[in-house]
Amino acid sequence: MAELLRLAVGAAVGLPAPVLLVSFAASVPASLAAGAGVLLFAAALWACRKLAGVQRRAAAVPAPYAPLTGGPLARLRTVVRDPATWRDLLWLPCQFVAGVGGFVVAVALWLAAVQCVTAPALRALLPSPTGYDPAVLEWTGRSGPLTWILVPVGAGLTVVAVWLPRHLVRAQAALARALLAPTSAARLAARVDRLTTTRAAAVDASAAELRRIERDLHDGAQARLVLLAMHLGVASDVIDDDPAVAKALLAEARTGAGAALTELRGLVRGIHPPVLADRGLAAAVHALVLGSAVTVQLDLRLARRLAAPVEAAAYFATAEALGNAIRHSGAGEIRIALVDAGDAVHITVRDNGVGGADPSRGTGLLGIQRRLSAFDGTLHVTSPSGGPTVLEMSLPCEA
């Protein structure tokens, strides 16, 4: 019955095709001649897009349309120039034939099967011609033996009626994929646009990261090194006259040098942790959670070393997600899973906090999204109010 319902939907989608095609054909000359018929033309295109959208959703086909911007006339020009619009118009009569024809064939098969199986009963219930005899009685001339022969025929038709609709549905889906799916050129153009956007975001993120490193160096290690140089200079000036003061200054210089070295190590670790380069992603994530104030459960299924840029992106995305969960979620437990699926690394960070995380607010999730998108990765956030919050990240290994 599910297949019959889908065939009915396909028939309903294809049924308006003659009206829309006639409206479209009638509106074009009027539009070209005197500017009339533009509204009819736009309405026909809009209805065609809506019908194609229904079939795309049924066949799980992505929409290939160019984005619409500007006023009504600019949008109409974009629609007219979009090759997907004309593919929709080509699909419409094909769907009329496939949708309406498929539904009629499926229903006719069931009706014929029921009449054949019930032919002897119909002959017994209708012993004399009524003027409205079922087709099977007309075919058999109301002959008793022939009506019984139709019973196995009806059983065979029942099998066909059960088997055929699913293939008719698949045929309509194949038609939708052939005519309604994005072409190779459209997919390439969309990918280029997406990569252009993500490249700009990655450049902005890199510039912001460089500014942060510069600020940390200027305010931290550089200031300590300047103070260290001053202490050493003063100590060299007074070492002959007041050795005790010189020793105190040298001790302060040594303390400052140790603090500057610690800050530089922390800065280098933020740029690229040594453990990540030496021992890989699993060890780096394990080291990341050792000092966490919140209980963190790890599920690390990484049996190989990945490319260094991929490992770095996965590490920092995980670190940012963990930091966000600790700072903002109020969670008592965080679960992190990293799974190498062969073609991609799947990262899941789940906490039992208050929920309500939104990528459009704040910079933490946006930073993760920008970092992943630079490698053609994805981020999916599920965070209902009251929790839990689940971040699902995917990073292609061949990025």
Automatic annotation (TrEMBL):
UniProt keyword annotation of Thylakoid present: no
Protein name in the entry: histidine kinase
EC top class named in words: transferase
InterPro entries linked to this entry: HATPase_C_sf, HATPase_dom, Put_sensor_dom, Sensor_HK_TwoCompSys, Sig_transdc_His_kin_sub3_dim/P
Domain of life of the native organism: Bacteria
EC number(s) on file: 2.7.13.3
Entry annotated with the keyword Protease: no
Transmembrane segments: 31-48, 96-126, 146-164
Keyword annotations of the record: ATP-binding, Kinase, Membrane, Nucleotide-binding, Phosphoprotein, Transferase, Transmembrane, Transmembrane helix, Two-component regulatory system
Organism: Dactylosporangium maewongense
Pfam families: HATPase_c, HisKA_3, Sensor
Catalysed transformations (reactions): ATP + protein L-histidine = ADP + protein N-phospho-L-histidine
Domain Histidine kinase/HSP90-like ATPase positions: 309-399
